[in-house]
TrEMBL record:
PANTHER family: NOP2 YEAST -RELATED NOL1/NOP2/FMU SUN DOMAIN-CONTAINING, RIBOSOMAL RNA SMALL SUBUNIT METHYLTRANSFERASE B-RELATED. PROSITE patterns: SAM_MT_RSMB_NOP (PS51686). This is SAM-dependent MTase RsmB/NOP-type domain-containing protein. The lineage of its organism: Bacteria, Pseudomonadati, Bacteroidota, Chitinophagia, Chitinophagales. The keyword Transcription regulation does not apply. S-adenosyl-L-methionine binds at residues 247, 274, 299. It comes from Flavihumibacter stibioxidans. CDD domains: AdoMet_MTases. InterPro entries: MeTrfase_RsmB-F_NOP2_cat (IPR049560), MeTrfase_RsmB-F_NOP2_dom (IPR001678), RCMT (IPR023267), SAM-dependent_MTases_sf (IPR029063).
Amino acid sequence: MFAKAHLQAAIKLVTGYKGEMPFVHYLKQYFSTNKKHGSRDRKQIAQLCYCWFRLGHSLNNVPGEERMIIALFLCSECPNPLLASLHPEWNESAGLPVEEKISLLPPDIFNFPLTIFPWISQLSEGIDPLKFSFSHLQQPDLFLRIRPGYRDAILRKLNKIGQAYTLEGDLCLRLPNGFKVEDQFVLNREVVVQDLSSQRVGDLIDLVSPGLRAMEDARVWDCCAASGGKTLLAFDRMPGLNFTVTDIRNSILQNLFQRFRQAGIYSYDGFVADLSKESLSEIGESFLNLPLQNLIIADVPCSGSGTWSRTPEQLCFFKESAVTDYSELQKKIISNAVRKLAPGGHFLYITCSVFHAENEANVEFLTRQHGLKLMESRIIKGYTQKADTMFAAMLHN
Ligand SMILES: C[S@@+](CC[C@H](N)C(=O)[O-])C[C@H]1O[C@@H](n2cnc3c(N)ncnc32)[C@H](O)[C@@H]1O
């Protein structure tokens, strides 16, 4: 009874949503003007909506309610009351692997998985299209990176409160999504919220960190720093180096500076720099005065297509033409950034995209156009790990 009403509310929401804002905000607005839904209702309605988006471009011609129940079935990891109410015959099979669940669907629903993510032909090398498509059916886990010196205390705390966790390597914690980080830990000082794949970018930093640490006065510039996830990662591996952070807007940098204070980092430079500008003088005086750098981290703005299991509405609303726009913007940014690379310096190119045009094509651009040499590049396959998928390449000149 309730389930049916939730189904109808969810259908109304997903059909009314046109991709104008992140769906999480759209939902918030809806619930704040529709107070009749209690917290359990809200959860179930949200769950149904997200399942709907997780099917991406599949089954678009299946009637709404049927499509949403199929989506709920395929996205459910175990039996649950919502599915029990909406389609009891499927509920006991909810925990089966997705391939087996598909075989239980009506026979006319065939070959849909490849259209969850319809841009298969544009994927970076080495990404398994089917596994990648299926990965969108589930929300990735929450990951924390334990900061140096806090490992024992953090694990003691988790054990004390009886919180289940998995350690991925030495310092990466996998936790369930509902875990309230700030209730347990001092955020940014003891732990940072950082996806597993983002943490694995650290493996590429490790290729060059011994050389940088051995150098007198080594300089590191994070040229698209955002909230500083990669800078903090690099800082924790190489404290004591000269760090510079830049981004396109002052408000972004102010948040970053606050995060650095929380992390106990006070010694660094930071300024606004729009690296898409045609002429160097337009980027600004601070950029012109920036000394040559031994490591440049370019975690460029991108389609974010490796993170869409967290924001599955993007599967439905992403415009293919944006891939070319991002690729062009990325070329401008890296072309300007590379001018500040010291002789023998290293350039770390990162995206959370799965598109060849944003990944390998831009590495090729850096080698062909700017004469850099590729040390190593990799797709960090979060899609097999309930994590984001990323691309990272270390180059040098
Ligand atoms: C993928 S995010 C960086 C994430 C960050 N490195 C981290 O680990 O948290 C890309 C950043 O590039 C910035 N950006 C976008 N356009 C830019 C431009 N023209 N010049 C410099 N930065 C830009 C965005 O504001 C955004 O903060």
